[in-house]
Amino acid sequence: MRLKxxxxxxxxxxxxxxxxxxxxxxxxxxxxxxxxxxxxxxxVDQELLAQIKNNLAGVQPVNLEQLLEVEDQYLVxxxxxxxxxxxxxxxxxxxxxxxxxxxxxYPQLNLLTGEDLQAYNxxxxxxxxxxxxxxxxxxxxxPSDILGWYTNALLxxxxxxxxxxxxxxxxxxxxxxAYIERRTERENGEDNGNGETPAPEDEFxxxxxxxxxxxxxxxxxxxxxxxxxIKTTAExxxxxxETMDIVRDQIIELNPEIFTDEQVGSVATKIREAFxxxxxxxxxQLDQLDDxxxxxxxxxxxxxxxxxxxxxxxxxxxxxxxxxPEANRFRDALxxxxxxxxxxxxxxxxxxxxxxxxxxFQENNAEDMEALALAMQENYGIxxxxxETSSDESSSSEESSDEESSDEESSDExxxxxxxxxxxxSDLDIYREELVGQTxxxxxxxxxxxxxxxxxxxxxxxxxxxSTSPEELTALRAEIVIAGYENFSDDQLSSxxxxxxxxxxxxxxxxxxxxxxxxxxxFAEWYNEAKNADAEVPSYIFQExxxxxxDMFDALVVEAKNNIIxxxxxxxxxxxxxxxxxxxxxxxxxxxxxxNYVDVTNYLTERYPDVVNGGGSQTxxxxxxxxxxxxxxxxxxxxEENEENLPNTGENSSIWLIIVAALALIGGGIYLFISGxxxxx
Length: 681
What we know:
Blueprint: H1 2-27, H2 30-33, H3 46-59, H4 64-67, H5 72-88, H6 94-105, H7 114-130, H8 135-140, H9 143-156, H10 161-187, H11 203-211, H12 216-219, H13 224-236, H14 241-254, H15 261-278, H16 283-286, H17 291-303, H18 308-318, H19 320-338, H20 342-346, H21 350-364, H22 369-380, H23 387-403, H24 407-421, H25 427-438, H26 443-446, H27 451-461, H28 470-483, H29 490-507, H30 512-515, H31 520-532, H32 537-548, H33 554-567, H34 572-575, H35 580-586, H36 597-607, H37 609-612, H38 655-680
């Protein structure tokens, strides 16, 4: 009997012990029971994990080496939790919230908090100002060390911030070199005792080295901040070869001096071709400009948002000896052949005169000095000198006196002669006069358009010379102004483009804030391109915007994703598989200004049936500008590495204790059963 009791008690104790172990594993805080990738029980999205780590280490004082000590699933779960909180509190900073939680759950990381955290952020800002190191660069050198060095250096240099920074730069370099060496060891599979494995390569860097001729040494000379917008371009283009060719040129434009003559020359050749096609520049002029000047000048213009026209103007002002002779040739011809006032012409900048001539050239497909003379009078108020005109009138008057006996008879006969020599006005001439009479167009402006051009614009609108209602004439006036926008005043162009802007806002996901970043002349160019392509103007302009400036839609995409997730059954994972353009079109308000989320669901289901219906993932044909969640985890990928999961450490799972306990219970039951029968017998 005592043996039975002993076995029963032992069996129960074993079972209770197994259950207690399981309970502890479930209830105790993760940071107290699980460390650095022990017991990985669920599959972690490695791409999402890498993005989370990169962003966290890019904007908070923690580096990827420290994050190796944090469980992968913990990071993903924490990120998901904080992202959910954003839905009810949009002002919440996900990365700061995650960092604060890490300081609590992983005290072994010794992360900065409170006044130390504030002091480090201030120090990092100063160091970034007086050195080449960004915030994420400093994180790799370990924030706590950086703060200590900087504080001591300030004391030693009497609060001279620049001197303090310069004094600690060698320490920063040494710490970063050590960090990079440890990272290299991990990438080469050299275990440093922590069970670390090689980190996956950054997709952007891989694409640079595989798809372009940019070397690692060249690439390493740019900061994360400099490359951020270019990286976005690469991501939006899905790293295609065509996209990487553009990215390669953009990187070279950042600092052409560090690249080879061949690399810079290839970009300069493309720039020259673009100039010849879209500006008054000639090959002879462009050949006089240095490759490095051209590339760097265009690169600076791109960063400032200047178009190719602005780049050409810069070149004209920088090199008057190159472009001045051509401008002077036009001035001389205007003065000698058309009596335009020379002093007034000299007041017109070379660039503006060359643009005016270029516009006339495009209009007539040939150099037309008479048309240029009219344009200069109309657009710049250049007057005509009357010396030769008076001489001609005097000569004409003398000839008339010889033929007639009195001034009155001469005048009457002259008028009669003029009428008999002039041809009857055509319907189109009369129509031009009607346009001038009922709109703000002048005859000089209209005369810059050939009859064929005017007729083609009328045909586009379905008008004839009998279409003289105010509405019809106003519509034609708008087409004329946009078609020859270079020849009209800013006020005329602005009044014409305003309805175009309004149509784009009303009919596409673009907003006023986005459209206000672009000039009326840019809109005129897009409008003409749309008409030439026989495309709907608002849709065409929107497509140009999302293709050329996708980053301008980031905030709209984040908001749209959040609204879709909150108001439909579509999940975060599903919406992340959709093109950002489709997402924006889906939440486009209806005629009443509301968003019908039933229609949103139907639209996205039709576009992505496999994704929405759960039939499997569906990769968009072009990924647009995707985020991996309602808070964009790609906004600050400013750390140079990602880390993979560490291997399982080999700890025994509590499941084995449960199995042992169960076997013990079964065995104990069998023993008791047999013993009982023996006792009866």
